[in-house]
Predict the 3D structure of the following.
Amino acid sequence: MRDLNKFRGSLVGGAVGDALGYAVEFLSHAEIVERYGEEGIVDYELTDGVAQISDDTQMTLFTANALLFGTTRGILRGIGGGPGNYCKYFYQDWLYTQGESSNERHHSWLINIPQLLHRRAPGNTCLSALRSGGSGTIENPINQSKGCGGIMRVAPIGLYYEFGGNTGYFREDIALIGAKAAALTHGHDLGYIPAAALVYIINSILYGNYSGENDLKNIVVDSIACMNELFADKPHIEEFSNLLKKAIALAYSDKPDMACLSELGEGWVAEETLAIAVFCSLRYKNDFQKAITAAVNHDGDSDSTGSVTGNILGAYLGYDAIPDRYLTQLELKD
């Protein structure tokens, strides 16, 4: 059953983590502590009175718009294509907002939002792949990048597609949509497998039949099993599985956050982004603020790890669990 509180939680939660981490994306943990104190950054760094989102939330919005457009077109015209087709066109519109395209034919109304017509440290892989058409597939990769630019934008896919007999979708199908959306720009198997896993996790939170103290852990465990089945022939599936299993184990260990995060990586690549987000979400699954602050206070790609953590835990806890301190000054919240 669709739950608007969880939809809002995931989308706004991702934007919160993105905006909190964006200010420290290129700082080491030592530099973050020196600038913000022993706890690191816990409140927004404001620019002109707002907490700015980065390319992570920008592209997430274009993904969501692509899904809505595809459904609307199918209803109104009786014809439609796969979700990946629409994502391809809408990512081209995002490229236009970055000043990288002169294409005058647009599909997304988001290009009319002035605040989105800004470059917010866009990923080089996304830019270069989209300049060349952004037509990568799992079978015919556009490059060999496993950067986190694929995973950080696919959360809406997990939210939107409800699985079950009446919908025509199994959860594996929905996860595969996430992989295909990421593969448009990121061709390494570790560039799109984590995206599929994130979609699976979010979809299971919303529509799965999980309960009890270990519900979120069980969802992550099941996502690993699903990825092993979907991508059994991919050369790095074992590497992906082992890293996610390590993230689960570390979440329930006695080790300090930073020691655990250092073992999982820095989040510049997709499998590390997801591992860090899983770790933070499991360790602090009932405390959105603690999870988000843990996710951004480290040496690596703080906005992306914060964004994916917010996507997961926002879906799990709902919009109402996000503290007001992270809502009032968030750019484009409305």
In short: The CA atoms of residues 163 and 169 lie 5 Å apart. The radius of gyration is 18 Å. DSSP finds 14 helices and no strands in the chain.
